[in-house]
C-alpha cells in the first residue's frame, strides 16, 4: 500500500526513487519552472524530471539551489537527446546538463529515445558515468521489449528504469510485464493524457465516489500498478492536487474498469517510427 508522497520504489541497484515526481516538459526556463519546482517542493515532491530537450535545465538548477531542502534529499533526472547520442557525445551531453543544473551528480540519467544504431554506444556512456559515480542510476525512455532485448544482449549494467507513455488509453501491458520480469522499474510520462480523458464516464464516476478529481484517480491508478509517475504542471493548485493521492485506494474492480479503457492509443510518437 502506497501511503505517502515520501514513499519510494527501490531500483535494481538499491537506489530509492520517489513514487511521485514533477515533470517539467514545456515549463518555460526561468521564473515559470523555478516557481513550479518551488510549489512542488512545498507540496512534498522530492523528484524533478527534466531533459536536455526541454531547454530548462538552468531554471531547474536555479530552483533546486533555492528551495529549502538539501540537495541530497532531491532526486534529479535528466536525459540525453537524440542528436547527442553516441559514446563521446553522450558524455559531453551529460557534462553540459550537469553544468546547466549546477549539480555534482545526477540521481538518474536516461536515454530519451531508442535511436537506431546509436543507443548501444549511448548506453556504454551511461555505464561509464555510473561506474565513475557521476550518476546514481541509469535507464532508458520509450524502449519496447525488442529494444531492451537488444540492449541487454551485451550490456554490462542493465537499465534500472524504463520511462514510457502510460495512461488509461495506453496501458502497455507487454512492456510492464517485461520490465517486471527483468526488475526494471517503469515510469509514466504524460500520465494524464493532457486532460483528454477527464470526462470519461468511468473515470468521473470513480472520482465522484472517492470525492477526488479525475486526475487524482488516474495518478492513483498509476501508483497502484507499481508505476512511478511524473505529472507535469506549472499551476500551484494542480501541483498540490496531483500530490493528494495518499488518502484513498482504488478497488480491484475500479482498477480493472480503468484498465479496460485501453485502446493502445499513443499520444506521442511510436518508438519504432521516431
From TrEMBL:
Alphabetized UniProt keyword annotations: NADP, Oxidoreductase
SUPFAM superfamilies: NAD(P)-linked oxidoreductase
Residues noted as binding substrate in the record, renumbered to the chain: 112
Domain NADP-dependent oxidoreductase: 22-263
Active site: 54 (proton donor)
Sites marked Lowers pKa of active site Tyr: 79
Any one GO molecular function term: oxidoreductase activity, acting on the CH-OH group of donors, NAD or NADP as acceptor
Domain of life (superkingdom): Bacteria
The keyword Oxidoreductase appears for this protein: yes
CDD domains with a match to the protein in the record: AKR_AKR5G1-3
Gene3D superfamilies on file: NADP-dependent oxidoreductase domain (3.20.20.100)
InterPro entries: AKR, AKR5G, Aldo/ket_reductase_CS, NAD(P)_OxRdtase_dom_sf, NADP_OxRdtase_dom
Keyword Electron transport on entry: no
Family: Belongs to the aldo/keto reductase family.
Name of protein: 2,5-didehydrogluconate reductase
Organism: Fictibacillus macauensis ZFHKF-1
Amino acid at each position: 500500500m502506497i501511503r505517502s508522497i515520501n514513499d519510494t520504489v527501490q531500483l535494481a541497484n538499491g537506489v530509492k526513487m520517489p513514487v511521485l515526481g514533477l515533470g517539467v516538459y514545456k515549463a518555460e526556463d526561468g521564473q515559470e519552472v523555478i516557481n513550479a519546482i518551488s510549489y512542488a517542493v512545498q507540496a512534498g515532491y522530492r523528484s524533478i524530471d527534466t531533459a536536455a530537450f526541454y531547454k530548462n535545465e538552468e531554471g531547474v538548477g536555479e530552483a533546486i539551489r533555492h528551495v529549502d531542502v538539501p540537495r541530497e534529499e532531491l532526486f534529479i533526472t535528466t536525459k540525453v537527446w537524440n542528436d547527442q547520442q553516441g559514446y563521446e557525445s553522450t558524455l559531453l551531453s551529460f557534462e553540459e546538463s550537469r553544468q546547466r543544473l549546477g549539480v555534482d551528480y545526477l540521481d538518474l540519467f536516461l536515454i530519451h529515445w531508442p535511436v537506431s544504431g546509436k543507443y548501444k554506444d549511448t548506453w556504454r556512456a551511461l555505464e561509464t558515468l555510473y561506474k565513475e559515480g557521476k550518476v546514481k542510476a541509469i535507464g532508458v525512455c520509450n524502449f519496447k521489449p525488442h529494444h531492451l532485448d537488444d540492449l541487454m544482449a551485451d550490456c554490462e549494467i542493465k537499465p534500472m528504469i524504463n520511462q514510457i507513455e502510460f495512461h488509461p488509453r495506453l496501458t502497455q501491458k507487454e512492456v510492464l510485464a517485461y520490465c517486471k520480469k527483468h526488475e526494471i522499474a517503469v515510469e509514466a510520462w504524460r500520465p494524464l493524457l493532457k486532460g483528454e480523458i477527464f470526462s470519461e464516464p468511468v473515470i468521473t464516476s470513480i472520482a465522484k465516489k472517492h470525492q477526488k478529481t479525475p486526475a487524482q484517480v488516474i495518478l492513483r491508478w498509476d501508483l497502484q500498478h507499481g508505476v512511478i509517475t511524473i505529472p507535469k504542471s506549472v499551476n500551484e493548485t494542480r501541483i498540490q492536487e496531483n500530490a493528494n493521492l495518499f488518502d484513498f485506494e482504488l478497488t480491484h474492480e475500479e482498477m480493472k474498469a480503468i484498465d479496460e479503457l485501453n485502446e493502445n492509443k499513443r499520444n506521442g510518437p511510436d518508438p519504432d517510427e521516431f
